[in-house]
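testing teh design pipeline on a random one, pls ignore if ur not involved
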């Protein structure tokens, strides 16, 4: 096992959700890990108003992973982006700890005003493949968004949302 708090914590997070992960070294090759590593470099640059450099790192991340994370997005610990191709995370998105995103997820905005316009994803939420979460909505702690759901409103903690438009499943 690789030592180091960030790497070992990320490896544990991936192992929890991906039984195909056989070693920490293999996990380091995952596109989600590459994209998150570059975001961890780009985000402080963005916060320090080095927007061009931050965007350059973000674009490198997109080129080598197929995952687009705006350098302004706030991302907590242990985010897992599994099979991340096509994931888009907008500038004012906030993702808390222990969240799982699958391929093709969009955390997008629906207006162009310079204010928070992207989703907030609370701790432990899981967002299924192809889901689109649009606007300044909150996905509650431990909530699940089904594959290809389109979510335009808040989702309570622990709820499951499916469909287009997304509705809470009972």
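output:
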């Amino acid at each position: 096992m690789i030592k180091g708090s960030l790497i070992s914590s990320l490896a544990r997070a991936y192992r929890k959700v991906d039984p195909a992960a056989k070693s920490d070294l293999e996990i380091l090759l995952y596109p989600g890990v590459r994209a998150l590593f570059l975001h961890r470099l780009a985000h402080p640059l963005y916060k320090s108003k080095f927007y061009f450099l931050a965007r350059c790192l973000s674009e490198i991340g997109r080129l080598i992973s197929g995952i687009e994370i705006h350098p302004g997005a706030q991302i907590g610990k242990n985010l897992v982006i599994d099979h991340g191709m096509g994931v888009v995370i907008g500038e004012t998105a906030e993702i808390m700890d222990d969240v799982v995103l699958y391929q093709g997820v969009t955390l997008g905005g629906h207006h162009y005003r310079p204010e928070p316009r992207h989703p907030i994803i609370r701790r432990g939420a899981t967002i299924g493949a192809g889901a689109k979460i649009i606007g300044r909505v909150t996905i509650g702690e431990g909530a699940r968004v089904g594959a290809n759901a389109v979510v335009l409103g808040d989702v309570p903690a622990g709820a499951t949302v499916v469909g287009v438009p997304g509705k809470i499943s009972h």
